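INPUT
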Amino acid sequence: MDIPYTVEVRRDTGLTNGKIGIWLFLASEVMLFGALFASYILIRTGAQHWPRGETILNVPLATFNTIVLISSSVTMVMAWASLMRGRFGTFRIYMGATILLGFVFLVVKYFEYSHKFELGLFPSTNNFLAIYFTLTGLHMLHVIGGMAVNAYFWGPGAKLWNTNPAWFTNRVENAGLFWHFVDLVWIFLFPTLYLL
Amino acid sequence: MTSDHAASIETHAGDHAADIDRHVRIYITVFVSLMVLTIVTVAVSYLHLPLPIAVSVALLVATVKGSLVACYFMHLISEKKLIYAVLVLTVVFFIALLALPALTTSNGFGIHE
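OUTPUT
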């Protein structure tokens, strides 16, 4: 049996099922990160002393990573726009760039984490580092998840383009919504943890 | 297919391509804006402003950046009503969640009586 409403919109919602599904998932993600942000506020406002992020963390590296992630959001949306124009080859280039930029983000994060561990700074060291590793670690898992989905659409999943291009384009749009959300979370994490 | 029909389809395809081109120009403008705002965020942090002002400025800039991503990259600026309804509900619960720490420090809630 075919999956219903992958291309044509439902009359009652005005949307494809995939689109409403991804937005409901993102709503749950907002609450997940919201709970951790609320914990951060509670722990910080209750602390006698709280270090400014820049005294412990590497601001230039995180700024570089912010630029990398924002750039990956642009390449992602350009990948979708390429499909809308019917240019599959251009889609592959932009999607490949998105995956590559995600990989660069993870490599930078690896160096950041490694440096902290070398200095003996662990999640158990203090509350600042506990919340730093929890929030950035969860965010990193989302980057890895997004990269896996994007890699699928760049590789084996792209076969759908030959049989049902409209459905494939919608799938890439939904993957893009998740990727942009990951970028959006980082936009708030960066100043909260590194600059304040 | 009649020649009128064929011409109509071609015009429609042309409109569609022009629409996507317009979108792409917007994406590039948003990208440049996000880069500029990232530099602003970092530059302001080097001013070592008092914490309440630093928090306000950082969150204001982050909110503008987040709105740009949501409105243009995630196409929220022209989305269906049902998506807006889901997001309004999410925002209400999100604000309630962030307000919980404030409630715990108020006298009425009981923790710091």
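end of record. The CA atoms of residues 30 and 185 of chain A lie 9 Å apart.
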